[in-house]
Amino acid sequence: MASAASTMPNSSVVEAGFAELERQRELISSCTALWKELSDHFSSLERSLELRSESLHCKRRTLDFHTQRKLASLHRREESIEASVDLAIARVEELRAASLSSLSSADAAELPARLRTFCSKMDSDSFFDLIVSSRKESDLLRKEIPLALKESIDPAKFVMDAIARVFPVDRRAVRSPPGDLGWVSVLLLEGLVSALADPELGAERSLVTRIVKERAKEMADAWKDEMEQRGGVENAKAQDVHAFLQHLVTFDIGVKEEREFYRKLVVSISWRKQMPKLAMALGLEDKMSDIVEELILKGQQLDAINFAYESGLQDKYPPVPLLKSFLKDAKKAAALISEERNNAGQAANNTSRKEPSAIRAVMKCIEEHKLEAEFPLENLLKRLENLEKAKAEKRKTSGGPANKRTRANNGGPMPPAKAGRLTNNAYVSSFPATAPPTFVRSPSHNTYSSAPFSPYPSCHGFYGSHSPTAMRDPYAYPAEEIVAAPISAPYPSPPISYPTYAGYSSGMGAYSNGIPPVYQQAYYR
């Protein structure tokens, strides 16, 4: 019995043993957790290094591809130098003979012949005046100006001398005709693109000398300084901004460090249809996704579609949902305007135009991008027909169409006959002092995730365009907020009268009088 008692362990020893085991267990658990944490950390580092390595390999492949392409382009240019020189000499001889012939003959009365005559004589002032006086012949001017500029010995100098009267600032002593002439600058700069193209390589290589680029840069810097003095991008006139961007593209003087500034300018006049192509030509390929997102948030879905198609992002930003969102916003805006009590006359006038104009703009967008299979036009045509019938019925019940200058309400003041015009002629190239519009998220669109995309090469050329929509002002606001906050249009618009859908107000497309049409039409047909 005594031996059995002596062999039994002491309780304190047992407790110490268990405590040691517990300590060892905790140490093992701590070591296991630490090992797992280190293992996860090193696995994360390994994955990160793999991703970075893959990214570097991708960038290297892209760099090799661009390098090979540039080297091939340089090789082609080197091979084409002799042929280009021979063609240039032959062209000079041809122009000399044509100039001698024109001097000996009577002055031609037709517009194309007169354009060529002024170009061959390097008479930039007469050439500019002829274009201004022939504003109604806009289609013929777009066709003939590039051909006429090729008759000039130095097309780049000739065009810069011509536009120097109004760009970068208006230097005319007597502003006759009155108004902005930025459309002339855009027309000439666009026409100059083909005149500067290499005869062998085409638009891939522009024949712009170093002296010409230096002068073009001085003009661009002067415009930027003038813009900053007059309030920045927010107060810049659309025609001036368009001329500036086209000036950069035509003479290939864009600066990589200023691409964010170019992006702001492009977005500020994104409703002009040249803007997507100009954005690509200015090297904004990597910013196109941000531009599309910003336009969607502003309620400019149609403009966003144009930018998406130009940059190849139509799969990331499907056009049909954006078109439906645009129509939904237009319908809401028209309904809210019809409920206005303070301005019943103007509200009724606007309501009858808002939704039909939106439908026509959507139909035009569908036709341009060939979306008939995804978005049939039948329902839109029926809706448009019903709206036109309702409008006609209202006219019948009211005893005929209302006078354009009827009072906005029973006791309101009579609006001036030219209330919609911009009449600030004190300085033609000045910038309006209107406050920048406040844009709010469109209530009917979906947010798209940002993802990289393959950039497309920029190119010169003649671009189409389209004009802004005056209906865009209410669409940029959520339906819940329009009642609380007055609708603020991003561009000045007439209080009563609006231009019709099918016509141009002054024969020069969007270069009319600074007022955007009520629909998104083609800026250049």
From TrEMBL:
Keyword Ribosomal protein on entry: no
Keyword Transcription: no
Protein's GO biological process: cell differentiation; flower development
Database matches in Pfam families: Frigida
Taxonomy, superkingdom: Eukaryota
Keywords, sorted A to Z: Developmental protein, Differentiation, Flowering
Signal peptide positions (record): none
InterPro entries assigned to the protein according to its UniProt record, in alphabetical order: Frigida
Chain spans, region Disordered: 391-417
Family per similarity comment: Belongs to the Frigida family.
Protein name: FRIGIDA-like protein
Organism: Dendrobium thyrsiflorum
Lineage: Eukaryota, Viridiplantae, Streptophyta, Embryophyta, Tracheophyta
